[in-house]
Design goal:
The complex is a heterodimer. By secondary structure, chain A is an alpha/beta fold. Chain A has helices at residues 20-29, 47-60, 68-72, 86-98, 113-126, 139-150, 197-200, 202-212, 229-233, 295-299, 331-344, 352-370, and strands spanning 7-12, 33-39, 64-65, 79-82, 102-105, 130-131, 156-165, 190-191, 194-195, 216-224, 239-246, 251-258, 270-276, 280-284, 376-377. Chain A is built from 12 helices and 15 strands. Chain B folds into 2 domains: 7-107, 3-Layer(aba) Sandwich (Rossmann fold), CATH 3.40.50.720; 113-240 and 264-288, Dihydrodipicolinate Reductase, domain 2 (2-Layer Sandwich). Classes of the chains: A alpha/beta, B alpha/beta. Chains A and B meet through strand 7, strand 10, strand 11, strand 12 and strand 13 of A and strand 7, strand 8, strand 9, strand 10 and strand 11 of B.
Chain lengths: 379, 290
């Protein structure tokens, strides 16, 4: 624990598309942070989000500020946790950086590469620290880095990862109809009741590939709606695969998607295989775990998602093999790294530059998908 | 878990490298085995060893030569066997050589069909609850050299076509390091399913296969299915030699079973895959084949 007062944290929005609710326990529990306020721009958001923001502020016992500029002017704010809709994230990150606040950013810097670049520039220009905590600190990446550091693999040749969310209640898509390639993003990611799943789930796997491989050079991707009518109707993907090569010719592959409840004992596979010249090592981020086959819980399992959360963005299905780790996503480890970065005036392990490159790889994947599977060169 | 092998005075001469060595212990349960020739790497086996194919043929015990893993001199060895009137069965093609010409070898491309996990995947994926296939992830060994990589890729492609349907796009990526090869084959089928085949440079005992359908997930975890030995020195997985399809396949191929012999792939594509693997590694970027 630091000698100084804890860093004051401003929570910017509890958008239902974000993970702000997952960040709160870390900020509350960490000795060096305290939440000082919740804020949003009341005039620009829907009423249900206004109510949600207020409810969270009340539960945390902090003020709710209905104007973001006003909140950023507060002297007790050191860190801004940005979890607004992806389309507003870059604008808010630039505002907060310009106000001299350090940034904790949920997954994506912005909706386009240009927006991501603007955030990177703002962070560098204002000399503040920024972390994107979602990708680098979880069990999959950390176990992979430990393996790489051990030298057991020999020369690393490839990394292959499968991350799937066993969430949502699939309804058959109309597979008989002609199926168009998924739409290019064109800056639009969010739909009322679905998420683009290469972006949403694939970003975690891209984070692993970034941690292990060099700069991506070529990307091939494929995605379609296989599970959900909502994705089929909007010509978006609920499942995707991506293959990339880096500048050294090393290979990375991933699959990502939302595949429906009751398809995996731990809520979905989270796997990595590290292929080296001397060894191949398999990592299961959901292990070690405990098997829990409790008859009553299985036969009475409430697999049907709640009506207010049909894709289970804020909830999960029952699991029969919960992992032992208390922090499988690594959010607490990320917060420790961020506090260390602030105290020691250094970069955290995963900052805005890496998040920008993550988005660049995903966008190349979307271009490949839209072309029907052509290779897209990044450099 | 391996049981003591049973060898016979005459029978099959088995050729394989160290990546396939795990299959050797189970072979005598399926066919008479007279000996073994290593095609590369250190191979531990209780089978009688011969230095090379010539020595095995000179011993007069070879009723058939079965090549489980490819090597550079196999075409010459196949020709020698033909001259000695000993049939040759291979689990894959020879580069640039159509079978039954010159060398007279018989390629039995159906080894993958005798893999117990594959058979269970086919059974389970035919259940209505599985729905339609969406994705296959398959991890297989084979990249000790480029020929092994090629054979593993061909078997993987047969599996992909069998489980998911006809490819409409096929990308090859490959790389090499430390004298070993690693490749992935990315396939998109005409029904918009996809597959990622990963071929490692190291042995994989019990291929990992994950088949996703619209109705759920079928998953053979490969090495995690093995028996575990725990001693003061640590833990170790004991490979199940029945996890290897080679014995069942070889016996069926010798008997002329069509399942063991047939390939579902176009021969031109099969031959084109080998230079594509080399080109992908050289160019350090994906090569499109379909």
């Amino acid at each position: 624990m630091r000698d100084e007062a804890p860093y004051g944290v401003l929570l910017l929005s509890f958008s239902r598309h974000s993970h702000q609710r997952n960040f709160v326990p870390g900020f509350v529990g960490h000795a060096d942070t305290r939440i000082v306020a919740v804020a949003d721009d009341d005039e620009t958001i829907a009423d249900d989000l206004r109510q949600l923001n207020r409810r969270h502020a009340a539960e945390l016992g902090v003020p709710y500020v209905g104007n973001i500029a006003e909140a950023l002017a507060r002297q007790d704010v050191d860190i801004v946790s940005i979890a607004h809709d992806i389309e507003r994230r870059a604008e808010l990150a630039v505002l907060a950086a310009t106000a001299g606040k350090h940034l904790w950013i949920d997954k994506f810097l912005g909706a386009t590469l240009g927006e991501c670049d603007a955030v990177v520039d703002a962070v560098q220009a204002n000399g503040i620290r920024a972390i994107v905590p979602s990708y680098h600190y979880g069990s999959l990446v950390q176990q992979a880095l430990t393996v790489l550091a051990s030298g057991r693999l020999g020369e690393l040749l490839g990394v292959h990862t499968d991350v799937l969310f066993s969430k949502g209640w699939p309804r058959p898509t109309n597979r008989a109809s002609p199926r168009q390639p998924p739409l290019l993003p064109a800056g639009r990611w969010k739909y009322p009741e679905l998420k683009r799943e290469l972006l949403t789930v694939g970003a975690y796997s891209v984070g692993l590939l970034q941690a292990c491989l060099g700069t991506a050079k070529t990307v091939i991707a494929h995605g379609r709606a296989h599970f959900f009518q909502e994705h089929d109707d909007s010509t978006t993907e609920d499942f995707a695969t991506l293959t990339l090569t880096d500048e050294a010719g090393r290979i990375g592959t991933l699959c990502a998607g939302r595949i429906g409840v009751a398809t995996h004992p731990s809520g979905g596979p989270a796997l990595a295989r590290l292929v080296g010249a001397r060894a191949t090592i398999s990592i299961d981020a959901k292990r070690p775990a405990i098997n829990a086959f409790l008859r009553q819980e299985i036969v009475d399992a409430p697999y049907q998602p709640a009506k207010e959360d049909p894709m289970q963005w804020a909830s999960g299905p029952p699991t029969q093999r919960p992992p032992l780790s208390a922090d499988p996503a690594g959010l607490l480890a990320a917060l420790d790294d961020f506090i260390g970065a602030l105290d020691e005036n250094r970069q955290p392990a995963y900052s805005v530059e890496q998040a920008r490159d993550n988005m660049e790889i995903l966008l190349a994947g979307y271009r490949s998908m839209a072309s029907g599977g052509d290779a897209v060169d990044l450099r | 878990m391996s049981r003591p092998p049973t060898t016979t005075d005459s029978g099959a001469i088995i050729l394989c490298d160290s990546l396939r060595a795990g299959a050797l212990a189970g072979l005598p349960r399926h066919l008479p085995v007279a000996g073994f020739v290593s095609t590369g790497g250190g191979v531990r086996t209780e089978l009688p060893r011969f230095d090379d194919v010539t020595a095995a043929l000179d011993a007069g015990v070879a009723e058939v030569v079965v090549i489980l893993s490819p090597y550079r001199g196999m075409a010459a060895d196949a020709l020698l066997c033909r001259q000695r009137q000993v049939p040759v069965i291979t689990a894959g093609p020879m580069p640039g050589v159509a079978q039954n010409r010159k060398t007279g070898y018989v390629e039995a491309a159906g080894r993958w069909r005798y893999h117990l996990t594959v058979q269970r995947l086919f059974q389970s994926s035919s259940r209505p609850a599985f729905g339609s296939p969406v994705y296959l992830r398959h991890i297989a060994g084979g990249g000790r050299n480029v020929l092994g990589l090629w054979w593993a890729a061909l078997e993987g492609l047969e599996l992909i076509a069998g489980l998911l349907g006809t490819p409409r796009r096929l990308w090859v990526t490959a790389t090499r390091g430390g004298g070993r090869w690693h490749a992935t084959i990315t396939v998109i089928t005409i029904d918009e399913a996809s597959a990622q085949l990963v071929i490692t440079p190291t042995a994989v005992s019990g291929d990992e296969m994950m088949l996703l359908g619209t109705g759920g997930l079928l998953w053979g975890e490969g090495v995690r299915e093995h028996v575990i030995e725990q001693t003061d020195g640590g833990s170790r997985l004991l490979a199940d030699d029945e996890a290897w399809p080679d014995g069942r396949w070889a016996a069926a191929a010798i008997a002329g079973d069509a399942l063991a012999l047939q390939s579902s792939m176009d021969d031109a594509l099969r031959q084109a895959l080998l230079p594509a693997l080399r080109r992908a590694a050289r160019q350090r970027q994906p090569v499109s084949l379909v």
